[in-house]
Here is the input.
Amino acid sequence: MSVIYNRVALIGLGLIAGSMAHAMRRANLAAEIVGTARSAETRSVAREIGLCDRVVDSAAEAVQGADLVVLAVPIGAMGAVAEEIGPHLKPGATVSDVGSVKRAVIEAVAPHIPQGVHFIPGHPLAGTEHSGPKSGFASLFENRWCLLVPPENTDPEAMARLRALWEGMGAHVEEMDADHHDLVLAVTSHAPHLIAYTMVGVADDLRRVTDGEVIKYSAAGFRDFTRIAASDPTMWRDVFLSNKDATLEILGRFTEELFALQRAIRTGDGAHLFDYFTRTRAIRRGIIEAGQDTDAPDFGRSKPGS
Amino acid sequence: MSVIYNRVALIGLGLIAGSMAHAMRRANLAAEIVGTARSAETRSVAREIGLCDRVVDSAAEAVQGADLVVLAVPIGAMGAVAEEIGPHLKPGATVSDVGSVKRAVIEAVAPHIPQGVHFIPGHPLAGTEHSGPKSGFASLFENRWCLLVPPENTDPEAMARLRALWEGMGAHVEEMDADHHDLVLAVTSHAPHLIAYTMVGVADDLRRVTDGEVIKYSAAGFRDFTRIAASDPTMWRDVFLSNKDATLEILGRFTEELFALQRAIRTGDGAHLFDYFTRTRAIRRGIIEAGQDTDAPDFGRSKPGS
Here is the structure.
């Protein structure tokens, strides 16, 4: 692979930016990677492990001379970062982001992007429950989707370069409209996360079943929820607050459906339950056939404690 | 390990019974394993792959001369199987089961157990989303819990043998009261399964987000739900119908909590969300420390499609 951007600036050095640094290096996609983070501790860890070529102390400094700037901070912080870097962006540079919601990011960031700088929001659908500068790894984006949300009249060459970067890191790239993105993600990610958080919180709240029991016997299904519910709290707070309408709409549909299944349980309507569960099983099959999960039992989990 | 039961009869040859057959053989825990299943196709597959020493055509035949009889059929079928085998059980034999609900199984099975036969219900907390006679494997129970629910005045020697069998298959054994078992499982397993089924059903129902999109972009969180929602429909229908009260109670608590989080989203109460998500993250840590899941990112999933 050949160098796509001469200098890339990563603003925020968590799981996604860290994985980008590893993936760009592996494929030699950037001649220089400059990084920064708001927390001095994160910057210090990043320097220690050599995550970037240079770690600098401010976003304004990081973007100087950069051909690509990636905003990889919680959604609630995007506006302030954009305001800070706006005056320091190099003419012809591209600004992108990795936020899980697109409409809110566009509203917060676009006003601060000067004429002559390209702004192409993006969202790699990849992650783990871990966070921080040490959590990244080069293969995170392999065979995963990266959704790009180019505004009208986006420069085709700027778009082609950004696409090539993501493909060079192993991702498949699709273009999508911002509002449709936010609805699709509400279904596939935001509502499931809120539901997992809720279930884990309920279990923790119960008095008659001890915490110890919940933890001990979690392998029966609950532990899959706890993995999702272990994701970064700041990031997810911002996701829900900034994709409010779509998330609440899906949760409303979820509640309706849950009530219908509860009624089937209460009235002993076994046929309804059986049909429902048969239908959901087919969806799993579709996901495996689409190459988006492993067919190995239990995700091919390595046995814990052995 | 030495032989614990001379002859073990497995009634039903799905994931759990099949895994027991593999695990008992590996550790030489049974001199002879006899199996049966209601479906002729299942029996035929089991014979073909040599799952048991003998596969016979009826439960009544399978239990003849057996020292341990394991009922591994859906909960709704337990009563009929118990009625069928009752007259054929060997005096001094032990009957156990592997059902996910204990009070309903006791009510269905106990009346058919003759004097002089021990009945010790059990529940191994282990499984995958796969089912059928080919889905079992010897290590399924390793480092997993098996809950035994002995009635009052259970013969200590019969209890010790059954415990030794499960330990020989790699499980940790705990004793528990039937009603408490059903409540604990409603929290750790039954409610999470219903919620996962619901979420997957909702996604499938939406018109504005296509099935193709849901499947394609499932890696963002949704796919973990689909694994749970791919579990055996008959088994789960019976679980919900037979653990109705505890499941509905936990779902009621879940709905309350979900409404509180929805309200926090609607009103923009970020502090409430952040605190909630921070608390649930700590629970995940507890599960990993208890050795009930892997700390590897994304369950250490092997990369699909690569």
Notes: Chain B has a mean pLDDT of 92. The two ends of chain B are 40 Å apart (CA to CA).
